[in-house]
Amino acid sequence: MGFILAIVLTFLGPSNSSSVYVCTGPNAYSYHCNRNCRGLNNCSAEVKIVSLEKAKAMKRKPCGICYRR
Ligand SMILES: [Zn+2]
Q: 26 versus 69: which is more confidently predicted?
């Protein structure tokens, strides 16, 4: 049983812990992995931390600045 629980926790862990930053302003359309991102500096409203799932549900796209590799 412990073995199965460990697999489930490993599977759920990363997705549960992935939080992103979104600007709540009317012109915001991205989510960010970095609070200090240049895109968030332009935010005219409040910056909120939400889960990645929530950000996607809000139709946000990954920011082109802080998600660039
Ligand atoms: Zn960004």
A: 26
